[in-house]
């Protein structure tokens, strides 16, 4: 397992057992060995009734993360002498699946753990999942709002849920006032601050002066003034911010919390708002590659450091201003759910990549290099050429730049080709549908085979999916690798499966229907490795109907008529009906597997 860096990104949840199988430890405590769940055994038990690709869910890991989050904040609160509590919410958008939301409500009950909704459908999910027993839990209503959204949030309050309407825009206040009058329900209002603190890189675009969401401090104070004039200032209770996902360092966490706490204190001291909660949004990161580097795929801190940065920053700012410590809320999503599920892909075949450069001999390469360096402008000894502004060389640079790149690539390949052939592993998946972030934002997830982990994987592999797009290929892996070491396929050893780990956040909701490959099967695994429930993914029929076809009228009837004309409806009807009721992935792959041992 060392090859895959599992000890770094997997600690303490994922290990390799004596049989060389990937294991899950839902207690997050490796001392309890013997209690690990053997992933291959779960797959073998599931595969007779469930199709690939499948997601294995380990609800025990959700509970462990939730407990760890609360322990981290409780310790930070105790250690710094903070005088208020922590009370978090799960942002529904990060994984809306019913089982997950219900798990969080259930596991979070004793913590008054709540939910965050960013749209009307999410609000409806949250309203129905939170129960009377969760009347203290926050139901944070974020996102742009119309009258219907605000009315829903007020209904939630009228039903005894602790719904808070967080304003993203000034204009929303008019809607809130209007709906509140209409329905006779007093709202609890929060405001989302647009902070100046920004995070660098891909995930940072939601914050900063030009960020898309929230109100700058000045506008927040105007809202407070307006509420005061309306004698509704008592509505305003919460200040919220979210500077983006994957905050890379605790310096930025502290900076953002300090900036927000400053606005909070001003609202209390200068505007007389009776605030009580500071909601620090999401952004708690996941160390996908195990490097703790603070790159796009990694964060340089753990849960404890994150919690103490927030608690400490808010405490200092409030004490400086003589303001009571607010209840601290966070909307951590990614860090709560990433670990708890893994996607299991099935290898269909492994085919050596044709070596298109084989005919390039070292002599030919040398000749190409000589030819390039003989070009005058490249030598830099032609005064006129050097004196010419760069722009006038653009065409040459472009032309030769590509040549240089090609030669360099050939060189690199000819060195590599001596030892390695790259194998294209065809996998039963659609990258767009299952791991859209791999394709959309070049997200890297740790990947590894689930078995044969004591055997040296001799093939350098890339993963190819079932779609016919050139993008349907994974050829970037964690820590900058361009291939994933995999074992030669051997049907005698049974199926060969690759797990995509830390993939529990965002992927399912983002997943598209490209090529009309739908979602995966979902298998829920209990603490002892038993299968609790198994849901099949969307059938072909369901996927087709999402594109506005009436399956009976537009598909079956039409095919029926045509088949009748040829007298083959009996045969065709059976095949078509069977095809409509299964998942669109490959079920039985009977082509002999090329590239097997
Ligand atoms: N809160 C809000 C308002 C968000 O927009 C998001 C994600 O985009 C989150 C919370 C969750 O963030 P994360 O998954 O980084 O914790």
UniProtKB/TrEMBL annotation:
N6-(pyridoxal phosphate)lysine: modified positions: 93
Stretches that traverse the bilayer: none
Catalytic center residues: 468
Enzyme class: lyase
GO biological process: L-arginine catabolic process; putrescine biosynthetic process; spermidine biosynthetic process
Known catalytic reactions: L-arginine + H(+) = agmatine + CO2
Pathway per the UniProt entry: Amine and polyamine biosynthesis; agmatine biosynthesis; agmatine from L-arginine: step 1/1
Keywords: Decarboxylase, Lyase, Magnesium, Pyridoxal phosphate, Spermidine biosynthesis
A GO term, aspect molecular function: arginine decarboxylase activity
Tagged with keyword DNA-binding: no
Cofactor entry: pyridoxal 5'-phosphate; Mg(2+)
Domain of life of the native organism: Eukaryota
Listed Gene3D superfamilies: 1.20.58.930, Alanine racemase, Lyase, Ornithine Decarboxylase, Chain A, domain 1
The keyword DNA-binding belongs to this UniProt entry's keyword annotation: no
EC numbers, comma separated: 4.1.1.19
All residue ranges annotated as the Orn/DAP/Arg decarboxylase 2 N-terminal domain in the record: 81-338
PANTHER family noted in UniProt: ARGININE DECARBOXYLASE
Record-stated family: Belongs to the Orn/Lys/Arg decarboxylase class-II family. SpeA subfamily.
UniProt cross-references to NCBIfam families, sorted A to Z: PRK05354.1, speA
Name of protein: Arginine decarboxylase
Source species of the chain: Triticum aestivum
Gene this chain is encoded by: LOC123175618
